């Protein structure tokens, strides 16, 4: 049986936890009125616009608060005049009181009027401050540098505190990749753990970062732990909402023994591989129980059961059993290295062979085994090796003649044998007819037969 075999791959690998991630903005705020209600007058920015801290982004209709502010200013002017008048009158009365020319009750009345005017002035000033503050709330500004990522309302809509936001602004010079870790893996992920992030929008980029924040409680609904990974985004290429995968490094295995998943059979609680046994001279398949370690996707770590120099059947394992005689070809399957020289879990298994479902030998109509047809069916296909020659032949691959399918060859041979049998049968019939004619003429041709026999024997005598 033709198989591909080779020694296990020994290499340092990283043990990772793969999890989906989604990008979130480092900071994001919803823009809405804080303490006023009114009609949205203008929206000065739109989705995708870059804004600076303090920039005006929206206006709420503030005519009511403008009128209150104007009224408060008018009241202040009036009460300031009344305060000045009340103080002047009180000063005059106090000066006259030194000569005992003013009644004490009149002085008390002037003092009360001055105090009332001063109180009214303070009230007007408070109303002016409140109206000015409310008027300021009508101008909505960006709290930091960022981008407008969402716009909800248009001019004319009614806005109020706690209502629908007008805009959403996000700070994206840094983004967070957020993963939800299941409960059994939660204790394995510490702050500072290395992680590789691959975003679906940038499949050729692997971002090496570290776990920045780990939640201290599980989500009550999903029973998962929130883990955040900060990613620099100075070019603003990574957008909130993008998705990808993160491989969180939770350990490293030096000199790990790796075999492809095509080499491993798992039966209930045990696993085994087939190795090449050459102790009897001719290679045979031998079953070896193994203990598996880390699952790397297309590759599995073997903790025990085989040696690093043993030949493991990597392709064609499903075609053999214990003791099967083997025709061994060197396996060329090897993992692809990643940033940290770890084997990739996405290496295509292009060197696998398909199971040969053709019969081992064909039989012709007479019951004889057609060994030529069987040889054609089991002959290994030519491959373009490094030397450019067909496998097992000294013919260049480009000059190799394609052999007809085994079934066609066997059918042709059976057809040829049928024709030969028919021809032999016809010849046999002709011989019987000739024999009958000879018997009919035997009485009259004895002399001729004697001469013919004599002539047939004469060469023997001469020799």
CATH architecture of the domain at 2-14 and 253-330: Beta Barrel
CATH top level assignment of the domain at 2-14 and 253-330: Mainly Beta
Sequence of secondary-structure elements: EEEEEHHEEEEEEEEEEEEEEEEEHHH
**Beta-strand percentage range:** 25-35%
Quick one: how many beta strands?
Answer: 22
The average pLDDT value, as a whole number, equals: 76
Query: If you compute it from the alpha carbons, what radius of gyration comes out, rounded to the nearest whole angstrom?
Result: 50 Å
Shape: rod-shaped
Which residue ranges are poorly predicted, with pLDDT under 50 across at least 5 consecutive positions? 337-463
Q: Which secondary-structure class do the elements indicate?
A: alpha+beta
The percent of residues in helical segments reads 25-40%
- Major sheet: size, sense and barrel closure? 13 strands, antiparallel
Oligomer: single chain
Walk me through this protein's architecture:
It is built from 5 helices and 22 strands. By secondary structure, it is an alpha+beta fold. Among the domains are: about 1-15 and about 255-330, Beta Barrel (conserved putative lor/sdh protein from methanococcus maripaludis s2 fold); about 60-135, Helix Hairpins (Orthogonal Bundle); about 360-435, no CATH class. Mean pLDDT is about 75; it is low at about 335-463.
